[in-house]
Predict the structure.
Amino acid sequence: MGGPCNNKECMNWSDDKPEKSVVYVSFGSMAQLGLEQMEEIACGLSDCKFNFLWVVRAEEEEKLPKEFANQKITGKGMVVAWCRQLDVLAHKSVGCFVTHCGFNSTLEAISLGVPVVGMPQWTDQIRTLSC
């Protein structure tokens, strides 16, 4: 499924996408989404008209729907265990960032002018989203 991704692979995949056509999804290094949340996000990404790059940590991969494994690297979507977030957010193809609203992630997106869809999970993330 996702597996490690060297940054060059992620960037090469993104290079082929039109400007602002990629939804970048990452919930940081600590958030643990529920099975139903993972399934709904996968369904939404599959059904939407946008390309996506989704970071799913190795320990969370088992929550992805089995049929979603076929979208590991397709023209539309890529699921990886890791990538350099700042490089991804700075890429011309990224038009939206779905995030847990960790402070660093939010600052990176704001500083690069990337619109954010917030899904805070705990602690200060709800307050960060409200800013």
User: Anything to note?
Assistant: The chain has a mean pLDDT of 84. DSSP finds five helices and five strands in the chain.
